[in-house]
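fyi for ur records
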Amino acid sequence: MDMNEIKEIFFQECEEQLAELESGLLKLNDGDRDPETVNAVFRAVHSIKGGAGAFGLDELVAFAHVFETTLDCVRSNKLDPNQDVLKVMLKSADVLADLTNASRDGGSVDESRTRGLVKELEALANGETITPSAAEPAASKPAAKAAVVPPPTPAPAPTDDSGFQPIAFSFGDFEDAAIPLMEAPTFNITFKPSAALYSKGNESALLLRDLARIGEMSVNCDMSTLPSLDEMNPEGAYFFWKIAIKTDKGEEGIRSVFEFAEWDCELDIVMAEDETPADEELPMIPVPFDLSALEDDVHEPAVQPATIDEPVVAKAVATASAATEVTQAVAAAVEKREAASPAAAANAANAANNASAGQTIRVDLDRVDRLINLVGELVINQAMLSQSVIENDTTGTSAVNMGLEELQQLTREIQDSVMAIRAQPVKPVFQRMSRIVREVADMIGKQIRLITEGENTEVDKTVIDKLAEPLTHMIRNAVDHGIETPEKREAAGKNPEGTVKLTAKHRSGRILIELQDDGAGINRERVRQKAIDNDLISADANLTDEEIDNLIFAPGFSTADKISDISGRGVGMDVVKRSIQALGGRISISSRPGLGSTFTMSLPLTLAVLDGMVVTVAGQTLVVPLTAIVETLQPEAQNIHSFGSNQRLISIRNSFCPLVDVGRILNFRATQANPVDGVALLVESEGGGQRALMVDAIQGQRQVVIKSLEANYTHVPGIAAATILGDGRVALILDVDAVVGASRGQSLKQEMSLAATG
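which gave:
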């Protein structure tokens, strides 16, 4: 594996770490104060910084280092993660993502924004009060720092002839909070960092702190190579550590702590013998913990007063400072362990067990796509083979026929398993929307909160990849047009902070995504007038509320008074509709004046296969998605009723349902067929209610492989896609929602015209 492949893996892991970072920050923003959540956020930034340092991504390392330092203040309870603090951190997470993308794809990031956030993060880490102008250089007196308790000045400990300064950490005072490690083995570690480790943003104290989390340990710092002050290189590395740790994580768990630093240090890990000879035992001098010292910054060591012999005193100061820094680093880790509740510890243990149980492997997506295509071809060939056997075997009981039935079942199981590989939760897309809400709300001065539900709802990756664009347009539309300004909301008796709710759920073999806001709703009078001004409708058109709402999907339609960076160019909601239709889905609107609007998208779970009912209409073979069919029935003459000039209704269990002749709607025949001679399929569409689709005959139910008609031919109104049947013929897959819409007066020809002009 070359360096480029390793770097690509790093950026893939960065995406996971950034998602974990934003998820944790949003939990904190919602009031979650679980120490494990804070630790997860810190680890995400620390991992990105460490990996970026290994590849020499200095700009990314520098920003991540400042971000990490501020998060460390939250971990040590020196900084309260209130709303103002988390607002800065959420913006910092966005910048960190931008820097990561710029490092991977090239390009640049707004330096002024980055510098401003660096100053805000540093101010938070220093205990300063953040103001709107915190990012600008302070012209007046600096803000007052929070009270800091200085650490006690440790007395210089004796050193032996080898130059070792023993620093022992005793966890005896924290036995109640520590996790019992009675049977855990002991490992002896030699850790020698090089100067490159520090130049890449890593810190020995933080590594030792992370190491303290996985077991009980004692540390000895070797300062025998520390030169005099006049010979010292400020960028050099002169200390190394000998560590004894008792842990059940094994050597792999220890190396994971040094994962991004192992290339820039000498690391030797050896399991200790059961008993250490007395003459080899290193002397341990306990350094007692003073919890008041934990209030100070671990990066500000105590300063000793100078004496006449400056080189000697300088060395003593460095010794004492190193001892204090390492002592406080491990003490902070112990305090975290003490603060964690038993329930949190149990949850962490369960999470570790689940992580080890659910192992994953990275696979190139192209390989999965090829596998899915091959399985699709297998399904088609299996159907062809079954069709041939059925045509040549009149009894239907031959051994070949029975074997084919087993083959069909196995093929279905293989197909379901392969499709499950591509299934992914919608969480990454939903998390991306939270950033858009923050940025747009800041641009227009609104207070908006995004609530997400059903983030773990799984859908095919092809759907997820194409879902981001329409969702982005809808989110921007909801924030810009849907939610009122804080002043208008207060005047209307609402909370000045608006709410946008994004939910995902499964229903009848499809995924429903709803975007709901508590804004002012659609101003139908204004929409109607804009449509008249743009010559989209005539002034005397008689439209229902639903039809007026759907005018916002017309190409070029916009209610914005002026063009801005967010809206006003008439591009947006028409793109949303086309994108959703390209995915084989439909979108509907429900709006109540003064209460808000709800946009509902109904999408297929996968774009590869579907279960369908094969029917015949005017000599043509069609496939109707099985998820849309409620029931099938044979119409009787007494149940058919005329309505208007050319409409017919069918009576089903004391209720009337419109009867739709599919052949007439699709122009397969010029006149309507007799319903009694055919079969009615009772279907349910999104926003259209129930309709009875009339077809000539039903051939059977089967699973078909979806082939894009638009990609291979062109868009055909009323047709969602195509497939290949077992006899090799091409069959069209019916777009039930489009056919139902046409039966309600919406012309398929007009739909084709709009799609072409859009």
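The mean pLDDT is 74. thats all i got for now
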